[in-house]
Amino acid sequence: MAKEASYKDKKVITIGIVRELTGLSERQIRYYEERKLIFPERTSGGSRKYSFADIELLMEIAEKIEDGVQTYEIRQEMKKKNADATKLRNKMIQGQLNAQFGTRKR
Amino acid sequence: MAKEASYKDKKVITIGIVRELTGLSERQIRYYEERKLIFPERTSGGSRKYSFADIELLMEIAEKIEDGVQTYEIRQEMKKKNADATKLRNKMIQGQLNAQFGTRKR
DNA sequence: CAACGATGTTAGAAAACCTTACATATAATT
DNA sequence: AATTATATGTAAGGTTTTCTAACATCGTTG
């Protein structure tokens, strides 16, 4: 069930590096977390750890912000996208089950 | 010529995370650098930055060390492997050129 | 104008990292 | 056997990086 965390998804990058890679300020990066757009992990000492995927997401966020989109709206878009992906995934799983065991009506 | 640095090769991971991921001590990680087995980059402030490839290499190194191989020998193996790869690469480039422009004797 | 959104800046503290040096226990060399 | 080299731990002191919290600014929206 749990997917192998690939390089892209492993949270191993500190905020300073993220700053360099994205060109965003640390203030901005932390603020987008506060607005629930990104979810870094933490070291035992409390330092934030990001993945490459987070970095890509941050760059998308930055673009939207530049286009005048507010963090709240971005959050809504993300929620929707997640919900859609979940729905699709469930539908596919259901399809798998039906293929294996046949459809049962009602 | 320069290859696009993929996630695997980008030097973005600090030594503390490398310690966690490899199980090696920072002392060991720095020592293997001193013995020219790994080559982290540095932040402007001087902190080491490693790639996922470095981490995999470190784990291979750790295995060999456990098997009693010395860093010096590991270094020699690496040199040889690099030399071989370079030779092969050059041979392939030569092949490409011959295919395009024909072989010229002497 | 008041409230909110987004970002900068500052301050002080804690965590992470750096180098250098000394200690130790094996292992290799002479 | 004595010496040298390898591999690692640990300590000290210093610098860099990160953290949170607070206050400031400036633009937008109600």
UniProtKB/TrEMBL annotation, chains A, B:
<dbReference type="GO" id="GO:0003677">
    <property type="term" value="F:DNA binding"/>
</dbReference>
<dbReference type="InterPro" id="IPR047057">
    <property type="entry name" value="MerR_fam"/>
</dbReference>
<feature type="domain" description="HTH merR-type">
    <location>
        <begin position="12"/>
        <end position="80"/>
    </location>
</feature>
<keyword id="KW-0238">DNA-binding</keyword>
<dbReference type="InterPro" id="IPR000551">
    <property type="entry name" value="MerR-type_HTH_dom"/>
</dbReference>
<keyword id="KW-0805">Transcription regulation</keyword>
<dbReference type="GO" id="GO:0003700">
    <property type="term" value="F:DNA-binding transcription factor activity"/>
</dbReference>
<dbReference type="InterPro" id="IPR009061">
    <property type="entry name" value="DNA-bd_dom_put_sf"/>
</dbReference>
<keyword id="KW-0678">Repressor</keyword>
<protein>
    <submittedName>
        <fullName>MerR HTH family regulatory protein</fullName>
    </submittedName>
</protein>
<dbReference type="Pfam" id="PF13411">
    <property type="entry name" value="MerR_1"/>
</dbReference>
<keyword id="KW-0804">Transcription</keyword>
